[in-house]
Amino acid sequence: MLYKNVDLTAPVNVSSWRKTTYGTWKVTGDSQAYCLQTISVKNILSFIENYPKKITLTHIVGMCCAKMIKEHPEINRVIRFGKFYQRKDISIFFQVASDSNGEDLSGHTVKNIDKINLESLVKDLQSSAFKIKQGEDIHYHKVKKQMKLIPTIFLPIVIKAYGFVLYSLNLWSPLFGAPKDAFGSMMITNIGGLGIQTAFAPLVGYSRTPLVLAIGKVYKKPVVIDDKIQIEPCVDFCWTLDHRLIDGVKGAKMMQDFEKYMGQYH
Known about the structure:
This protein is α+β, with helices and mostly antiparallel strands. About 35% of the residues lie in helices and about 25% in strands. The strands form three sheets. Strands 3, 6, 7, 9, 10, 11 and 12 form a seven-stranded mixed sheet that branches. Strand 11 and strand 12 form a beta hairpin. The protein starts with a strand and ends with a helix.
């Protein structure tokens, strides 16, 4: 039995320029654009410290990204056969290292993240991370087992075909092993947990996800506030965008709103 993999609307009318970008760039490689955004997290760290339950910067970022996507639905789309389709929901994929050596990488997609609160997000991610690290995530182990059975030389072909069926044809079946719409509207990875300050993660072609955010580690930096130089704890937010869907104008507005939402936590 086959089902729709992603819940999409009918094709969306887009501008001539947007159609041109589709014909100009491929899904990965030359379609990738990079933006570095440095934000003071002094107030956010205070909020995290005083929050009644254990939370991290990743949780705050996830909530802000959900609001950002809701504010700019044009970036929440999937391209299929040259046409642009609007997603009906907002989902975010959070990457999780399944072992301490970094040999395996998995993650969890929070569905309808714009409709839940911070506490629900924390509970969801903590539960999923525990299952992944304890080897209790059924989907993760099923996909991992399937990948082991495929000779390495054929993996690029299989993965490309996988993405074509799931997103170009928009078909999904429980037999595929992976959960429905496994990667969502965007991906978030916390490279700061690895001690990395600045690095850009690549787009994952077969996921059809047009936006990846890498969160760097907290570091001290001189910033100008009220015409005075102060030392503030800052974080580099490293954005990788699919330029076919998110150009400079959209990217700028999107990141301005992201910083605005981050400023609401104090």
